[in-house]
Amino acid sequence: MATGKTGRILVVDDEADVLFAMKMLLKTEVKEVVTEKNPDNLMSQLSKEKFDVIFLDMNFKSALNTGNEGLFWLRQILGKDKDAKVILITAYGDVELAVKSLKEGAYDFIVKPWHNDKLLETLHNALQAKGQKKSEKSAANTGHTTILGESEAIQDILYKIDKIAPTEANVLILGENGTGKELVARALHEKSFRANQPFVSVDVAALTDTLFESELFGFKKGAFTDAKEDRKGRFEAADGGTLFLDEIGNISPAMQAKLLTVLQNRQVTPLGSNTPIPVDIRLISATNEPIYELAAKNLFRKDLIYRINTVEITLPPLRVRGNDVELLARHFAGIYAQKNHKPVPEFAPATLQKLKQHSWPGNVRELQHAVERAIILAEDNVLQPQDFSFSPMEMAPAAQSVPAFAADTNMPLHEIERETIRRVIEKNKGNISKAAKELGLTRTALYRRLNKYDI
């Protein structure tokens, strides 16, 4: 990822490791990163300097000791600058508190331990909302998205993008985690007649039902406690452009019904209002869920599927893309060598053989992270097989990633799902990130199921 030297960022957290990790991650992405360990110095910092985005921890070891320190400091920040873009840093156990903070005016939140890509996406969206120039990740909106691949499978995808993009057809993108569904969505937008209009991306799996409505449809002042001003939803924000709903297979039946109504009527009614607002959007949706199986089990509305998939694109997993593995590995090597101030490395023949033989259950995203790790840790400028190590979970074929268990044939479907999740989490010793990857879910989708099944 190239440097996008825009934006001044403040990170407030009393853990030195978090501050260091954030600074290392963000320093090549933005103009300046300032860290602050003591929240008591926060208001003094804001009096002296202007920041485009503030990352704020939700819990500090301070004299307040209320468990809601982040909420207290959020109110202080917004009291000084109501337009401040505050991104909360929270643990899973505080997600409900983070949702409450969104209603109080926080821009968004990230859950520890975070995924770097997701954190950077949230940051870039906040910078865009603040009126800053977009960094490379957001620059994909203006026609710079590149999908690399010479395999027949990926060439077929590129052909479909060229044919579909200029139309107004709603598109459903299917594929495993890490195959590049958002990249395809951005490419469709950039090649469409809406390219100069907004591209708005929403990870709907991360939204509770209440947050789903307020985020997508907006709300009026007074619609709920602490709704202190009108706020546009993502549908309105995307008016004239493209709305990308990621992980759509994870939304609840109640929200499926509300989404269907909006798509049928092409208008939204913000919470707290009785006046519908017309919206003109091109909808692109994506999921790694077996959405037709869900529909067959009445877990996903068939009439909604008809609305969201005028045209369907299924992305191939990396393991069937042949020499694309080498092409992508060299591409990522160039990016991360530059980012880490190292010469671009070569790949030993045995290394390329090892990469091509790996099953890549995490697909392109896993390859990207593997190359980044190798660039950082390698002792030589020729990457050797030992520079790429995979955990037992990563070595397992993708099709065998979820362990089977002997279920009672009369066991309800939800009980089977609950037991599978429980066993995978137990197998991974409580590591949510590893369990989610093995189950083929995002962490947010897994968190929703943990809450649903009270695990």
CATH architecture of the largest domain: 3-Layer(aba) Sandwich
Spell out the CATH superfamily of the largest domain. P-loop containing nucleotide triphosphate hydrolases
Structural class: alpha/beta
Radius of gyration: 22 Å
DSSP helical segment count: 20
Average pLDDT, all residues: 82
| Helix content range | 40-55%
CATH topology label of the largest domain: Rossmann fold
Keywords: ATP-binding, DNA-binding, Nucleotide-binding, Phosphoprotein, Transcription, Transcription regulation
Modified residues (4-aspartylphosphate): 57
Domain Response regulatory: 8-127
GO molecular function, one term: sequence-specific DNA binding
How would you summarize what this structure contains?
With 455 residues, the protein is α/β, with parallel strands linked by helices. Helices cover 44% and strands 13% of the residues.
Question: What do you see in this structure?
Answer:
InterPro entries: AAA+_ATPase, AAA_lid_NorR, CheY-like_superfamily, Homeodomain-like_sf, HTH_Fis, P-loop_NTPase, Sig_transdc_resp-reg_receiver, Sigma_54_int. Residues 147-376 form the Sigma-54 factor interaction domain. By secondary structure, the chain is an alpha/beta fold. It folds into four domains: 8-134, Rossmann fold (3-Layer(aba) Sandwich), CATH 3.40.50.2300; 143-314, Rossmann fold; 318-395, Helicase, Ruva Protein, domain 3, CATH 1.10.8.60; 402-453, Homeodomain-like (Arc Repressor Mutant, subunit A), CATH 1.10.10.60. The chain is 44% helix and 13% strand. It has 20 helices and 14 strands. The chain has helices at 16-26, 42-48, 69-80, 95-104, 116-130, 136-139, 152-164, 181-190, 209-217, 234-237, 253-265, 291-296, 302-308, 324-339, 349-357, 363-377, 392-395, 413-427, 432-439, 443-453, and strands spanning 8-12, 32-36, 53-57, 86-91, 108-112, 171-174, 199-203, 242-246, 267-268, 277-278, 282-287, 311-314, 346-347, 382-383. A five-stranded parallel β-sheet has the order 2-1-3-4-5, sandwiched between helices. β4, α4 and β5 form a beta-alpha-beta unit. α18 (413-427) crosses α19 (432-439). Mean pLDDT is 82; it is low at 132-143 and 396-410.
